Amino acid sequence: MIKEKIIEKFLSQINQNQDKIIGIQLPSGKIISSSKPDYLIKFKTETALNNVLKDIEMGFGEGYMNGDIEIEGDLEEILKRGFYLANQMEKNKATTLIKNIFRWSVSRDKENIQYHYDIGDDFYKLFLDDSMTYSCAFFESPDMSLEDAQKLKRKIIYDKLQLNENDTLLDIGCGWGSIILESAERYGLKAVGITLSENQYKHVKEEIKNRNLEDRVEVYLMHYTQLPDLNKKFTKVVSVGMFEHVGREHYRDFFDKVYQVLDKGGLFLLHTIGKMHTDTQSRWIRKYIFPGGYLPSISEIMDSLCSFQFKYFLVDFDNWRMHYYYTLKKWRENFWKNIDKIREMFDEKFIRMWDLYLIASAVSFWVGSNYVFQILLSKGVVNDYPVIERKFIPLAQEKFDLQHN
After folding, report:
1. Angstrom distance (rounded) from CA 166 to CA 9
2. Going by C-beta distance under 8 Å and a sequence separation of 6 or more, which residues neighbour residue 357?
């Protein structure tokens, strides 16, 4: 059969130079493998198999979350092989970036944010740390607790921004408020956060009241394009895990709005998932997890900043790729620790969808498809910023055995 020939060719590529073998079980029960497989991808229906053969990303993602594809063995290892093979295939053909065909608007941004972040705070509490920080942590070692790694991440941000009691801090996309709440308590500064998530906004409002921070912390349910309407200036601005929702057509407008509210000599730290090169985006993630999301390349970010020549100046550029791998692994570990509670909230399709999202995202950082960039900028040139000393931390405990050509 033609299908079986295609599968055999796929398996020969994905198993090349590997000690452990991946096999495929057809809906008929027939197993295709060069030898006894260590991992098995089981197709329960012909429709699922046909969908994968037509479109491997959407076919596998939808088939897995619908329960039409089962995995025997380690899903993470299978995904690592798949990501690597996909990356190799992309290198060997000309690719074009699919443009977002949806008409952009502030209301659409709000809908997209609320689709993901307003699932329910009770759900996020089951796998995030106590601070409800939903972004990449910083691990001094892989066995560091998620709580400590998120605290260390925030401290690094504070140190890079050189926060002090005289500062006014703006957090664009403040999430559940960990940065604005903690920095106000730690440094005595004044902080403002903005979000498009109703749940996050309500949570931060309650925390401000519970911590008696009404005189120092404010939160607004608003879009970044409305920032000038606040009629406020800030000495420091931070944005963590929000830029991925902006869209490349709007990068210059985003940087312009930040520039308008940042004091002269002020610092702006942008923390975002991104890519080395302009690349295709995950259609499955955009459809089921982050509608409207777009991961910027380094060149797209820097090209947007070029329009602000002699206005923004680069202070520091940092890569946290492997730290997000460990963060996502911790989230997935917590997810499965609390699976009984999650099953009381959501159906099996949702659970499989989120499990795949967490582990596939982790693998995307492991194989170097995705990165985390921390970019520190100043408004106007700053010559008295202290030199940042790098600390070398050996993180990877396992050997990535895929041979890069």
Report:
1. 64
2. 285, 288, 289
| Number of H-type helices and E-type strands within the chain | 15, 11
Kindly state the tokens that stand for 23.
Answer: 């096999």
Q: DSSP code of 97?
A: P
What is the DSSP pairing of strand 262-274 with strand 234-240?
parallel
Number of domains in the chain: 2
Is the separation of the CB atoms in 248 and 296 below 8 Å? yes
Pairing of strands 234-240, 168-172: parallel
Contact present, 7 and 13 (Cβ < 8 Å) = no
HEC string of 326-363?
HHHHHHHHHHHHCHHHHHHHCCHHHHHHHHHHHHHHHH
The reply to whether 10 and 113 lie within a common domain is no
Q: Is 85 inside a domain boundary?
A: yes
Full residue range of the structural domain in which residue 240 is found: 106-379
Q: How far apart are the first and last CA of the chain?
A: 32
Q: Give the pTM.
A: 0.86
Sheet containing strand 31-32, strands side by side = 31-32, 22-25, 39-43, 69-72
pLDDT tens column, 322-346: 999 999 999 999 999 999 999 999 9
